[in-house]
Specification:
single chain; 514 residues; alpha/beta; Rossmann fold; TIM Barrel; six-stranded mixed beta sheet; 30% helix; 25% strand
Length: 514
């Protein structure tokens, strides 16, 4: 019997964030006795004593798998690497199970292995005795804690790639990459990879966020009608000042969530200004009978000031794409610890982003349909957003129709946050009988689904009750192997930096300051 537990030598806040997102059973290694029975993979992320090094080698020699970062020094061979500052690592290798990740923005020092092509030499697999070691040339916990941001393009059509200010580090791709590598380290041992599913049901989550910036009654009612017609539980982040005289209108929006976007639609690095903007908007919404549990800051700019201010409020979640985008919920790292406000990432492009690239309504529809398809090919959750006054409101009828046809799990962001917190705090353990490959589970799993993968091409969803009875939903196959972007396509996204800088300067100039 072996435990399918990820052991880690030092559970830093960044690594905790990553492993919580993946949803694996993990623990910090404190006892170095029977490592092979206790752990399926061990993450080495700090220097160790000679005695511990010997025990780790024994674990590996017996067939255990190792994941080592530059912070460790047990199995990696620094003499075979070149160390340099790098902005992006391109997936120019030939590992099929990594084809869904085209590049990784790191803006960090990286240790790149000579002769390896996978992400410019970031990844090196090495067979040692009966075990396998994955040397990983960056420290993921440091990257996930990096909350800097810059402007990026998102792939669509030549000269029509929309752009937005988003987190500098590719946090979603980073978590995806580590997940794929941890899977491989299990598969190499003939072990399945088990983690918590990312939706309360078999179908992925779909959520829709509205930032009501300056919206008038007509535009707000029009958008609400589309949501109501398609039975999509939209989440409205209200720019309170713009609707101050008619806030009661939103009581008519049955089945829709009301959240806060601030009183004024402005940004600041002043603690007092940000606090007052949130407090005033919150109080006005409470005065008319709302109790918002969600918040998103104007312009999506998450910074240290906002992190400090949010500590003073009791929001269940926040949503800013400059701290993370396109991924699954997580707690941002602030002051070397997890923030107390859950962050729900969204796809950061809206119809306004596409309109600035002169995209037609048909092209807008095409863009969001492609993003939706790409995410669902990987069974990923999808969160889109819109502004009432932006062009292209009518395209959402078509997108919502696709969502309904696909039977996605439609949630408000509040419902999504509630599920995610349940997922986060649900503890479980899983072991495998290596004689017959039977899995046994323990923990208060309730109706939480677990994802069991034995290959990179498919997985199974299972429910385990307290008596260890396992109910399977059957096999789910990834629909298509995602095609990596070519080098020329990546260059389209990364090139012409002057234009991105110019756009950012104009954006900053036009931004309302509190």
């Amino acid at each position: 019997m072996r435990h399918l537990c990820i052991g880690i030598l030092e559970l830093t806040p960044g690594w905790k964030s990553i492993l919580d997102q993946i949803g694996v059973w993990y623990e910090e290694v404190e006892s170095f006795g029977d490592l092979f029975t206790s752990y399926s993979v061990i993450i080495i992320n700090k220097p160790v004593s000679e005695e511990v090094e010997h025990q780790l080698h024994e674990f590996n020699d017996a067939g255990g798998s190792i994941f080592e970062t530059p912070s460790g020094d047990t199995f990696s061979h620094a003499r075979f690497t070149v160390t340099k500052k790098i902005k992006s690592l391109i997936n120019n290798g030939n590992i099929p199970f990594l084809d869904h990740i085209s590049f990784l923005d790191v803006y960090s020092e990286a240790h790149l292995y000579n002769g390896q092509t996978n992400f410019d030499g970031l990844i090196d697999f090495e067979k040692i005795e009966d075990g396998i070691v994955c040397n990983f040339g960056i420290n993921p916990d440091e990257l996930i804690a990096n909350n800097e941001y810059n402007r990026k393009r998102f792939f669509f059509k030549k000269k029509k790639h929309p752009d937005e200010l988003v987190s500098r580090v590719s946090k979603k791709e980073l978590v995806d990459l580590i997940t794929s590598l941890l899977k491989e380290l299990h598969f190499q041992q003939g072990l399945p990879f088990v983690n918590k599913w990312t939706s309360p049901k078999e179908h992925p989550v779909f959520a829709f966020r509205i930032d009501s910036d300056f919206g008038d009654k007509e535009s707000v009612k029009s958008l609400h009608k589309i949501g109501k017609t398609n039975q999509v539980p939209m989440t409205w982040f209200l720019h309170v000042q713009a609707h101050e005289d008619w806030l009661n209108l939103f009581h008519e929006f049955e089945g829709q969530e009301i959240a806060l976007h601030g009183y004024e639609h402005g940004t600041s690095t002043s603690y007092e200004q940000v606090f007052n903007n949130i407090e005033k908007g919150l109080q006005l919404l409470k005065d008319v009978g709302f109790s918002p549990e969600g918040f998103c800051v104007p312009y999506g700019i998450w910074n240290k000031t906002l992190a400090e201010v949010l500590q003073k409020f009791n929001f269940k979640y926040s949503s800013e794409f400059t701290v993370g985008y396109d991924g699954i919920p997580f707690y941002p790292i602030h002051n070397n610890a997890g923030s107390n406000t859950l962050q729900i990432p969204i796809h950061p492009i809206c119809t306004g982003s596409l309109n600035r690239k002169n995209a037609s309504f048909q092209e807008m529809k095409e863009y969001f349909a492609k993003v939706l398809e790409g995410k669902l090919n990987r069974y990923e959750n999808v969160v889109f957003y819109h502004h009432p006054l932006q062009p292209g409101t009518e395209i959402w009828n078509d997108i919502f129709s696709k969502v309904n046809d696909l039977k996605l799990t439609k949630l408000s962001l509040n419902e999504y946050a509630s599920f995610w917190k349940k997922r986060l705090y649900t503890q479980y353990s899983v072991s495998i009988d290596t004689e017959n490959n039977a899995l046994s589970f323990s923990g208060e799993l309730g109706n939480l689904l677990l994802q069991v993968s034995s290959s990179h091409t498919s997985f199974e969803l299972v429910q385990a009750n307290g008596d260890n009875e396992v109910k399977s939903s059957g096999e789910f196959k990834y629909h298509t192997q995602t095609k990596k972007l070519s080098e020329s396509e990546i260059e389209e996204l990364k090139g012409d930096k002057f234009q991105l800088i110019k756009t950012s300067l104009l954006d900053w100039k036009n931004r309302i300051k509190l």
